[in-house]
Design a protein that fits this description.
4 domains, Lipocalin, single chain, alpha-amino acid ester hydrolase ( Helical cap domain)
């Protein structure tokens, strides 16, 4: 799902979870002997048992994620286990080296060497265990969870609706008279599950510092009253019934300031994905108490480049699944299927057929998909970046290079806000993550290894200090503008502007005859053709393709899949450099400028910039084809997103669009590759390749195989444009 209860996901990731209800921790429980034992007998027995358990004590590192460490300690007559992001839990002896976790069905099984020494442990459920290797036999306390007390409230807003919130504040802070700032997240994904352990696990750095955390169900979702509207647009506020997410945010803050004792009068707002969109709403016509916001992977313009359309091409599987999830009920019910969705959407022809099969045609956003596929006023009114004409509060935008859902929004909001930033209060962090990946502790994304837990690094050096500065007045936040993790060489960079202005120069990568690429200019009068057949579209990820959030889905990592699974097809064109004899660092926005023709009257163009690894690279990267940037463009919108036009068959047209930002080094010994294709199914619906008024309802006989031709010449110089590090061109 689009990042609902992150806390639960973090805990479940390692096969462990909270062992106590909200407001308590194992550390506060009585871990000593049985009730009724005398003090002397209890102490002697505990000491003997503890001595026997000492062979298990130590630190254990997750084999594939060395930054994830668990510590096993003795406590009274038993063992406990804990991590920096996992609550302390009791281990109950079962048999031999097998222990149960906190009365659950989960297990800890210790492993021994041939000499009998404990060398590792496995955690999880039978059939799904993860191995941690012992690297120290010292008794260490890793867990520093603060206890938070939990309360709930129904907050009245201006039109009479009441909105549900969960409030977590550090235990004892109210009695001590601590005036703490609020840190709020508003979400459509439900907040009932937020607990003391949950907030410590999902936001460890912020929880350790101490905030009054507020988690709010937005209007019409879960326990909040009112009507839910997907990405509700900002409206004019002329009557008390004129509500949107900005008014609900302000009314919620008004109530919190007045009704939650010992607050400092300062509010920060944070969120990822839909909650990122809601965080940005807190920065529009902002409440005076809002002192910092962090929209992270925010839904910003769901037609232009986020969830539902990209440059006019409809994200069919995503719109199909997500609309049912959010509009089919007040709570989240994920769409799941055992079928290959490639076959399902192909069988149903168009989106109208798929929606009918799923009985979802009457859901509000599905209706708009079916009737307003172009960039109409409906979609334009929802777009956030057009309302960012001034900087009202310090803003930290966060995004990932391989975000499979909302890559566009982060950079679009930054680009809209930064020209108005007179006080130096708009910042951006971009890293090697998928959607929300910066919240986890991992050095991996799919097969990629970045050498360090980059999410931990980001949170500790940027996110936590950002809120500490603007909500608590503490020093430590020193980001001047942009922090970027440069992939390929795996290092953090800091820039005074984005795209960087110093140390880089403009470059073009030309498509040349016979499938080549060159930075020196187009060569000859070449062209490459392929036949694109809607009956046999190019899959966007390896089949079978599960429902977006279904069991076993590879959705979260598809952008880093090895592209060799499609690169040998005949219905696309590949262009490649020779083996690079020096590093080439591409930084900033990458633009595709394609001169192309079709024998049809409509066409889709997909362009991917790919890093091709050497055949002798260490496993699993030998020969790997890694997409760095990629994007689709629907040909009918080449002149106007509002008014689609047919393409003249055989005419050479220019198509220019952004493939998004990158900060990547193509290393010496690698190759640069550009792949062009005309379908990306079923993430994007099939273009019939015959112009029809509405592709959502295109008749079966409109879908025709057509010949696509890419031109590479001085007259028609198809190329990519980007910035390269000086000396790399």
């Amino acid at each position: 799902m689009k990042l609902g209860l992150v806390a639960v996901l973090v805990l479940a990731m390692w096969g462990i979870g909270p062992a106590r209800a909200a407001g308590t921790t194992v550390a506060e429980s009585n871990l000593s002997g049985s009730p009724g034992s005398g003090p002397m007998a209890k102490g002697v027995a505990a000491a003997e048992e503890s001595k026997g358990l000492a062979e298990y004590v130590g630190e254990y590192r997750l084999a594939e994620e060395p930054e994830v460490v668990l510590a096993v300690n003795t406590a009274g007559r038993g063992l406990t286990m804990e991590g920096e992001r996992t609550a302390r839990v009791e281990l109950g002896a079962r048999s031999g080296d097998e222990f149960g976790i906190g009365g659950t069905s989960r297990l800890v099984v210790f492993e021994r060497s041939a000499a009998g020494k404990v060398t590792a442990l496995q955690v999880g459920s039978k059939g799904a265990m993860r191995t941690y290797v012992r690297f120290s036999d010292a008794a260490v306390r890793l867990n520093h969870f603060r206890e938070y007390t939990r309360s709930e409230a129904m907050i009245p807003v201006r039109d009479g609706a009441k909105l549900h919130v969960v409030i977590l504040r550090p235990a004892g802070s109210e009695k001590r008279g601590e005036a703490l700032p609020f840190l709020m997240e508003r979400t459509p994904y439900g907040v009932d599950g937020y607990t003391s352990n949950g907030v410590n696990a999902s936001k460890p750095e912020l929880a350790a510092s101490g905030y009054i955390f507020v988690f709010a169900d937005i209007r019409g979702r879960y326990e909040s009253e009112g009507q839910f509207v997907m990405n509700r647009p900002v409206v004019a506020h002329t009557t008390k019934n004129d509500v949107d997410e900005t008014t609900d945010t302000r009314d919620t803050i008004d109530w919190l300031l007045k009704n939650v004792p010992n607050n400092s009068g300062k509010v920060g707002v944070i969120g990822v994905s839909y909650p990122g969109f809601l965080a940005m709403m807190a920065g529009i016509d902002a409440h005076p108490a809002v002192k910092a916001i962090s929209p992270q992977a925010p839904m910003t313009d769901v037609w232009m480049g986020d969830d539902f359309f990209h440059n006019g091409a409809f994200r069919e599987t995503y719109g199909f699944d997500y609309v049912q999830q959010l509009e089919g009920q007040k709570t989240d019910v994920r769409v799941d299927t055992k079928d290959d969705t490639f076959d399902f959407f192909l069988k149903n022809g168009n989106f109208a057929g798929a929606a009918k099969a799923a009985k979802m045609s009457d859901l509000p956003t599905a209706k708009v998909f079916l009737t307003q596929p172009s960039y109409t006023k409906f979609w334009q009114d929802m777009a956030v970046e057009k309302r960012l004409s001034r900087v009202e509060v310090p803003t930290l935008e966060v995004g990932g290079w391989w975000d499979q859902e909302d890559m566009w929004g982060t950079q679009a909001e930054y680009a809209a806000l930064k020209p108005h930033d007179t006080q130096g209060e708009v910042f951006m962090a971009l890293g090697p993550w998928n959607h929300g990946g910066w919240d986890g502790t991992t050095r991996h994304l799919g097969a990629l290894d970045f050498g360090a837990a980059t999410g931990d690094e980001y949170r500790k050096m940027i996110e936590a200090p950002f809120f500490e500065k603007y909500l608590k007045g503490k020093a430590g936040f020193d980001l001047q503008d942009v922090a970027s993790f440069r992939t390929g060489v795996n290092q953090w960079e800091r820039y005074a502007a984005w795209p960087p202005q110093v140390g880089f120069k403009e470059a073009k990568l030309y498509l040349t005859g016979e499938g080549g690429l060159s930075m020196s200019g187009p060569g000859g009068e070449g062209k490459v053709s392929y036949v694109a057949d809607p009956a046999n579209p190019v899959p966007y990820r390896n089949r079978p393709i599960q429902a977006t959030y279904g069991n076993g889905s590879k959705w979260r990592t598809w952008l880093v899949e090895d592209q060799r699974f499609v690169s040998g097809r005949k219905d696309l064109a590949n262009f490649m450099t020779p083996v690079l004899d020096h590093d080439v660092t591409v930084t900033g926005d990458v633009m595709a400028d394609l001169f192309a023709a079709t024998t049809g009257s409509d066409a889709d163009w997909v362009v991917k910039l790919i890093d091709v690894y050497p055949d002798d690279a260490p496993a699993p990267m030998a020969g790997y084809q890694l997409m760095i940037v990629d994007e689709i463009f629907r040909g009918r919108y080449r002149k106007s997103f509002e008014k689609p036009e047919a393409i003249e068959p055989g005419a050479v047209e220019e198509y220019k669009w952004s493939l998004h930002g990158a900060d990547h080094t193509f290393k010496k010994g690698h190759k640069m590759m550009v792949e062009v294709q005309s379908s990306w199914f079923p993430l994007y619906d099939r273009n019939p390749q015959t112009f029809v008024p509405n592709i959502m309802t295109a008749p079966a006989d409109a879908y025709k195989a057509e010949t696509m031709t890419i031109y590479e010449s001085a007259k028609y110089p198809s190329h990519l444009e980007f910035e390269v590090k000086a000396g790399n061109e």
